[in-house]
Amino acid sequence: MRLKLLLALLLTLTAIAATACDDDAPQAAAPRGTPVLSGNGGPGAGTPVVRAGRTAPRRAQPFDPASFQLVLEPVASGLNRPLFVTSAPDGSGRLFVVEQGGTVRIIQGGALLPEIFLDIRDRVRAGGEQGLLGLVFHPRYAENGRLFVNYTAHNSDNTIAEFHVSADPNRAGAAGGRVLLALPDFAANHNAGMLAFGPDGFLYVGTGDGGGGGDPQRTAQNAMALLGKMLRLDVDSGEPYAIAAGNPFAGRSDIRPEIWATGLRNPWRYSFDRITGDLWIADVGQGEWEEINLQPAGSAGGENYGWSIMEGTHCFRPSSGCDQNGLVRPVHEYDHSLGCSVTGGYVYRGAAYPALEGAYLFGDYCSGRIWALSPDTGAGRTATELLKASFQISSFGEDEQGEMYLTGYNTGIVYRLTTVAR
Predict the structure, then answer these.
(1) 349 within a domain of the structure (yes/no)
(2) Residue 422 domain-assigned (yes or no)
(3) Are 320 and 311 in contact, with CB atoms under 8 Å apart?
(4) pLDDT tens digits for range 269-281
(5) pTM, to two decimals
(6) Is the peptide bond before 240 cis (omega within 30 degrees of 0)?
(7) Would you state the pLDDT for residue 21?
(8) The domain containing residue 204 runs over which residues?
């Protein structure tokens, strides 16, 4: 008996040692819904964004775009000028699609539901670059039913408002709606429109420079203007919101405390890497250059991305010899021989297509081109064109598991991004 016990103990210790030394051994997955916290500190760390799926990157592997082909698989059609597709953190598996005219529709089980989730057409001015432009669900939506939208009001104000889901999970209550922020605007274009909660639990609001071409009122570099900025708001405190703890300019009288970053032209779409927390901002260019900016997760904020001193990495005002001191240069840019309006995407963190792991996918609204920007392994990033779609790419989106989708503005179709091996 004693010998059997010793043999069993020896076998157990051997198995443990083998697992500890085997880099290829499967690792226990983090529990579903493990919080991802910001490194910025402050009360935001008490309201972390909870994301389903992995909470750590897979083991690093070379990104090889030649090994696969990107394919767009139609999921649902019949939409009216779709501008954005997203998911709610509620475990339902539903996709929510923003339609420019002022409605939000639901895709469930691959089918477009007939009922409208949110209908605010009575308060939205739609057309051109105006309309219902963005949607985000509160990180604790499953508990509190809160959602936020970005739309153009009838008086042209760029408006951020809060709504709540009704007793019917497929319908939000449109009556009332609490306006958090209404930014007077002087032109119909450059309204941005994206909303996103950061890993810190704060709401990030990207604003355009007001439009008109060339930043005529110089808002992007105006410290007292909220246009041409990235704002960071605490929507869980204050009325209608509080200044997020840790905002870089809080307490100063010479710059608005809501500002997290400056120098943006029209950040139509931006996203947080659900694993690292890095913030990717695709800023639509003026006449020559489209740019993608990257703010590392550990940033304390206060970046100046250069507009309208610079367009991409090039002087704009003045056209040469501009003072670039303190400006953050983009991690990627492309000229207008390849497109005319960048549509920002996401770093792929899904499980279905490992070939895309860690790559930032983005596109161009005009040309339909879709690129993958490779992970930075120390030798910089390389953009590879993966596909040229035959429609206008208005947005990318993620489901709860990190799988990626995009919206065809002129086709009225939501597509799923898939790959096939070459």
Answers:
(1) no
(2) no
(3) no
(4) 999 999 999 999 9
(5) 0.87
(6) yes
(7) 33
(8) 80-340
